[in-house]
Amino acid sequence: MTNPNLDIFDLKRLQLHQSKQELERTGRNIQQKVTSQDLSTFVPVDRDPVAAIQMTESKMIPELLPLRHQRMLASQFAFFRGTAELMERDLKEQHQSNIPIVISGDAHVNNFGFYASPERQLLFGLNDFDESRIGNWESDLKRLLVSAELVGEENGFNRDALKELLKLTTKTYRHAIKRANRMTLSEIFYSSFEINDMVNTINALGDGNAEMNYRLEKIMKKSQHSNSEEIVQKMGTTNELGQLVFKDNPPRAKHLGPLLYQQVVAGYNFYRQNAREDVRVLLANFHISDIIRYSVGVGSFGTRCYLIMLTGLDGSHIVLQVKEALPLRYNLLSLQVQEAIHNGIRAGRRIVTAQRVLQSSSDPFLASTRFGGRSYYVRQFRDMKESINVSKLDLDSFQLYCQVCALLLAMAHSQSPTSPMIRGYIKHQKVLDEGLANWSLQYVKQVSMDYQAFKQAVQKDKQQR
């Protein structure tokens, strides 16, 4: 079987050997064939959401599925976060621009956040790349818009105000693409969004930002204490031999059997071969103190995820997260378990590459590995990583937050050599603001139906046990 990850992430597809002007013309020509009205027209889908979810979960750890379901049932937005495969599948049924760029594949509002640059600056941007691929720019934007609507509804915002928020988010994306198109290639490559830049940008966008600024200031203070030493202090304990180890909290946090432990150690050793040279030298000062399986998130909950506690010669610590890299969710729907394992062997490299492209500055510890026949990627765990709790924002602050996400999404998309085609496509297309808002509102209805079907399936399953 052909490896889907190779087909979907062939970076040669972005090398069209055309000038910027030629690429823009290509975008305008595509606009004539696939109009803004086409892109804004919701094509009804016919599939069984429960069967699709079960197909995805067949590749996950069974004992974690009840807790995964509990998290997904918390709200429609939580369900949306946990079912990227449904929207990936549905987007293939919609009209598509077919402008190839590197996309996040899961650009909902909670997949933006703060992280540390190697220089220890606090940056804001996309922070999840498990579904990254060569795809259509509008796929990311539509997922952002649908998530904004879902969060806004849960926050109790006025329906008309939310519609305007969606329109403004698309407008911000369009203007940011226009702005990036005027920048030089080097300016785009080196662009970053430090937290103070975010504050300044928000202040420049309008009034009513006191709430957002207050939360940003709290994040700046909190992030300085979010590091490996804090994690070890919170999650560590001393065992009967006097050794520092992770606490058990099954099924979410659980120590490994001897065989799996040795596999993870082998994966860590292989990771060190793929890490940056300076990181490899640093890690030579550390040894493994403990390893634990530790599940995180909503969509990733149920996949294989481990934490490695490293202790240095000076007694300091680094905590690394080893996270399973599955094939794209859409591909999981058509693959049996063993085929999924085989086809996912390069998924770690895909995710690492996409993160380095789409983030302005990535974790220096980021690299891929493999063990036990599966693919993984490694990064620091919660190192200065923070996020804004969107459920706590008022309407004005949430609107500004969505605008910032749209701005960052456009800048991430602009890293692809084919991005001038987006500019050519959306130039003078204000109609997209209204059109994509309407598409998103239609898709939210689909999410609601899928959520109810999943809820009923879980309840039925409980009754039968």
Automatic annotation (TrEMBL):
<dbReference type="InterPro" id="IPR018721">
    <property type="entry name" value="DUF2252"/>
</dbReference>
<dbReference type="Pfam" id="PF10009">
    <property type="entry name" value="DUF2252"/>
</dbReference>
<protein>
    <recommendedName>
        <fullName>DUF2252 domain-containing protein</fullName>
    </recommendedName>
</protein>
